[in-house]
Specification:
By secondary structure, this protein is α/β, with parallel strands linked by helices. The protein has 2 domains: 2-153, SPOUT methyltransferase, trefoil knot domain (Alpha/beta knot), CATH 3.40.1280.10; 175-211, Trp Operon Repressor, Chain A (Orthogonal Bundle), CATH 1.10.1270. Helix content is 29%, strand content 19%. It is built from 7 helices and 9 strands; from the N terminus they run βααβββαβαββααββα. It has helices at 15-18, 21-28, 65-78, 96-105, 142-153, 165-169, 202-211; strands at residues 2-8, 32-38, 51-52, 62-63, 83-93, 109-112, 129-132, 187-188, 191-192. The strands form 3 sheets. The protein has a 5-stranded parallel beta sheet, with helices on both faces. A two-stranded antiparallel sheet has the order 3-4. β5 (83-93), α4 and β6 (109-112) form a beta-alpha-beta unit. α4 (96-105) crosses α5 (142-153). The longest helix is centred in the N-terminal third of the chain and has 14 residues, at 65-78. The protein is elongated. The structure holds adenine. The site of adenine has 12 residues, from β5. Adenine (ADE) is lined by residues 87-89, 114, 132-134, 136-138, 141, 144.
């Protein structure tokens, strides 16, 4: 079973997403196990401090190294070969081909979510991958981590309903994204389903879908 762990100050943010729909089904089928690690539990002193001001001055607070190192060590104790993934707008841009590679890899993952203005740079000592979901800055790494986890888990064999749904959707190369799809009725308020999709001609349908797919880059 794949182990996906998340180091975060806000584990409750993940409750709805990971316990609904496909992510819930993936756990129910024992394809994946999610484990939240609350960074606050590794905070320093009576106030369980996790952040401090930056050396050299500047606005905002940074996550301190000690709680991050301790939380990641706890995650590694549970899954020693897991890859440590730092969520940061400075990371490589997430894309479908990476989701496919990571889903196929069989590896466990530890997603580390930042808050405040960022991390003490020394955390990079422990990090295998840095990932961004786009060129914009969010208030924390939780939403990016949820996005990335969802995109990986749905590609783990047996998680999606139809055997090939994930493969058909992106074709086989991961380069093309979804094509337009229609269900009943054939004519809705004068808006008609394209003729070719009703034709039963599989080659023509495949060609139409290829022509109407978005290219990923
Ligand atoms: N944390 C804040 N912004 C982010 C982004 N765009 N991608 C990943 N992690 C982030």
């Amino acid at each position: 079973m794949r182990k996906i762990q998340v180091v975060t100050l806000f584990p409750e943010m993940f409750d709805g997403v990971l316990n609904s729909s496909m992510m819930w089904k993936a756990q129910d089928q024992k394809a994946v196990e999610f484990k939240m690690i609350n960074l606050r539990d590794f905070g320093l002193g009576p106030r369980q401090q996790v952040d401090d001001t930056p050396y050299g001055g500047g606005d905002g607070m940074l996550l301190m190294p000690q709680p991050l190192f301790a939380a990641i060590a706890a995650a590694k104790e549970y899954d020693s070969s897991a890859k440590v993934v730092l969520m940061t707008p400075r990371g490589q841009r997430w894309k479908q081909a990476l989701a496919q590679t990571w889903a196929d890899s069989g590896d466990g993952y530890i997603f580390v979510c930042g808050r405040y203005e960022g991390y003490d740079e020394r955390v990079l000592e422990l990090v295998d991958e840095q990932v961004s979901v786009g060129d914009y800055v969010l208030t924390g790494g939780e939403l990016p981590a949820m996005t990335i986890i969802d995109s990986i888990v749905r590609l783990i064999p047996g998680v999606l309903g139809g055997e090939n749904s994930a493969a058909i959707e992106s074709f086989s190369d991961g380069e093309t994204l979804e094509f337009p799809q229609y269900t009943r009725p054939e004519d809705f308020n004068g808006m008609k389903v394209p003729e070719v999709l009703l034709s039963g001609n599989h080659a023509a349908i495949a060609k139409w879908r290829a022509e109407h797919s978005l290219k990923s880059e």
